[in-house]
Amino acid sequence: MSATEAATETDMATGTETLRVADFARLDVARRGRTGVPEVVFAQGKTVEQTLRLLAELRRADPAAPALATRCPAEVLAAAPTAFDAAPVQVDPVARTVTVGPLPAPRGAVAVVTAGTCDLPVAGECRATLAALGVGAFVVDDVGVAGIGRLFAQLPRLERADCAVVVAGMDGALPSVVTGLLRAPVVGVPTSVGYGVAAGGLAALGAMLATCAPGLTVVNIDNGFGAAVHAAKVVRAVHGA
Question: Quick one: 126 and 189 in the same domain?
């Protein structure tokens, strides 16, 4: 297969279709129909050409949904706006995401809450993913436990959300507090923010997993994408598929 070819492959045992792209990828183009969430390009570690090619192939294979790439290096963010002639492109340099294609109409409401300003890149990845999945979202930033009154002032907004994604580094305490205040499901996202014993997010992760606030769901360190997918499935359960 040449570097310019793409061909559909079918697993005879399961009937699952994949799209073989040149000699470097097999795209799971049936994923949106199977799970409600399309495949997303994780750009970290890929070349610029590979990332842009995979975004283009995802758009061709599933034009009803936008194509999304996360963890995009600066070179991808710079090249993306002019790489797709007929499709709108949204680049978020803070979230490090690229979205190709029109965004679906949003439904539902997810509150994306950050403990501090340093957590905004992970929150941005979450928000961009929700937008690509057709889920409404609003950001409540910089309401960490060091100044807990900031959070209480935002409770009327948070109580209107179908789900809350709470992003926090350092001691990772904020998701537990929010879980103890809201009826809606809460997803905690530990971030790799903090000094010394914060250990690149391990302290926050451990604190969230050890929470005494029952019902808190926790995803991997810096995984705004995974939190968004979980929140989107909550919204679909509330508002219908």
Answer: yes
Dihedral of alpha carbons 64, 120, 223, 216, sign: negative
pLDDT tens readout for residues 130-184 = 999 999 999 999 999 999 999 999 999 999 999 999 999 999 999 999 999 999 9
Residues 82 and 140 in one domain: no
Same domain (yes/no): 46, 159? no
Domain stop point among 51, 74, 100: 100
Distance CA 191, CA 200 (A): 7
Three-class DSSP labels, 94-107: CCCEEEECCCCCCE
Establish if 126 belongs to a structural domain. Answer: yes
CA 90/CA 188 separation, integer angstroms: 26
Tell me the β-bridge partners of 10: 17
pTM score, two decimals? 0.91
